[in-house]
Amino acid sequence: MEKKELTNKERLALPLQKMPEQKPEERIRNVNEVPLGFTEEMAVAEAERCLQCKNEPCVKGCPVAINIPGFIKLITERKFGEAIAVIKETSVLPAVCGRVCPQEEQCQKPCTVGKSLKSVDLAIQIGKLERFVADWEMSQADASVPVIKKETGKAIAIIGCGPAGITVAADCRREGHRVTIFEALHKPGGVLAYGIPEFRLPKKIVGREVDNLVRMGVEVKMNMVIGKIHTIDELMEEGYDAVFVGTGAGLPVFLNIPGENLNGIYSANEYLTRANLMQSYSFPNTDTPILRAKNVAVFGGGNVAMDSARTALRLGADNVYLVYRRSKEEMPARKEEVHHAEEEGVKLNLLQNPLRFIGDEKGWVTGVECLRMELGEPDDSGRRRPVPIKGSEFVIPVDACIVAIGNASNPLIPQTSPDINVTKWGNIIADEETLKTSKKGVFAGGDIVLGAATVILAMGQGRKAAKAINEYLATGAW
Questions:
Q1: In 350-445, which residue ranges form alpha helices assigned H by DSSP?
Q2: DSSP string for residues in 329-357
């Protein structure tokens, strides 16, 4: 019997599917993924809510322009293999993006269902559906390798195995070019490996995505710090016809307040790298230790701050204070991440700003003095400016602190390639459409150009860069 086609009114009346999750009291004692994924029935039910809009506003909101209505329609027909194939036409990291991308600010924000129901929280859960079909594919036999065109004899060096570099590698390899990725760390994935905790992005997923590149014929070289071991000029002298720089924004930014050099104060980069990449949560089974503190203060209001705070809980902290100088409404972190952090017991110390760290005679941090704030007029970002409340100083007793207020661009490439133009903040200047730099044959994208941004924005730049690289290698025109 043929299935009855639902009207738009009937689709809008269908309930939003709630993805099951680990209970808060259980998950803070492990590093396993928190959301457990849709079942097949839940995925089909959620996909049925899609109106299949002709003007496709969700596609316009996606930085890599995935055919979202197309893959969702295939889910309603239970053609999951075809659905993931549609996604992979434009995205090489669907299992990653389905988990960590801010869909509520991108593809789901313009969704007609959300607008009709007057809440982006009620939009089609595009990211969760993307995750479902990506996970479905991983549960099957090995994923198929994309068709590789005839070898061109051209070679591309990619510096950095993060989201931008992975995307460029896949798109350029498809064209038949020889592609080599140079990664500074001992494991591939860039920020996906060192920056995002296991409970948000299992590392086996990152590994599988990189394995797919290797199966395509991409060579991945670890422990290769370009700017130290080789310069870009040396790579080009060795026979690389084009270079893509995707080194990210891995230079930590600090508070620059008294006492910041005390023991027990981490940058979020170090803290998360120790916990994620080096798996210090299982020390001494792994080689890298991390401070098991009982009272931890985290400074910042973004996703990295949330990741740090939630990691501290899993490392045994009794109290984790997230100190943020604005209100909850101004927090740049994803709403879902803030919700998960609060569920797990992270205390949001809002409208507070650190003034100085306090230490003991042995040089260990014992407290942080903060000042209470109130919101004034909006600043250039459109958010209300925090204004200090005179005489409101107080001290939070701590034995560890994590600074998560942002990152600056990796300086190694600009330092060793002075003919690549950079901004006053150290970001490489690249053409908005082609990602060409001031140096012939060199392209750049991702956080090294954008500053600290999202996985999907880095991938969007990677797609543009790959297109321009392929054209450059075909024509020689710069």
A1: 412-416
A2: GG--S-HHHHHHHHHHT-EEEESEEEEEE
Give the span between the Cα atoms of 346 and 338, in whole angstroms: 9
Q: Rounded to 5 degrees, what are φ and ψ at 105?
A: -105, -5
Peptide bond into 388 cis (omega under 30): no
What is the rounded distance in angstroms from the CA atom of residue 389 to the CA atom of residue 295?
A: 25
Q: What is the largest CA-CA distance in the chain?
A: 79
Question: Under a CB-based contact definition with an 8 Å cutoff, are residues 442 and 245 in contact?
Answer: yes
Confidence of residue 143 (pLDDT cuts 50, 70, 90): low
- Using an 8 Å Cβ cutoff, are 302 and 332 in contact? yes
Rounded CA-CA distance 164/64 in Å is: 12
Give the count of beta carbons closer than 10 Å to the beta carbon of residue 342: 15
Q: Summarize pLDDT for 31-89 with one digit per residue, the tens.
A: 999 999 999 999 999 999 999 999 999 999 998 899 999 999 999 999 999 999 999 98
* Whole-angstrom distance, CA of residue 63 vs CA of residue 74: 22
Residue 449's nearest CA partner among 420, 471, 478 is: 420
Q: 53: closest CA among 121, 114, 130?
A: 114
How far from 227 is each of 239, 411, 441, CA to CA, in Å?
17, 9, 17
SS3 313: helix
Cβ atoms of residues 214 and 188 within 8 Å:
no
Identity at 350, one-letter amino acid code: L
Q: Residue 2 is encoded by which pair of tokens?
A: 């043929």
Cα 384 to Cα 158: distance, rounded to the nearest angstrom:
41
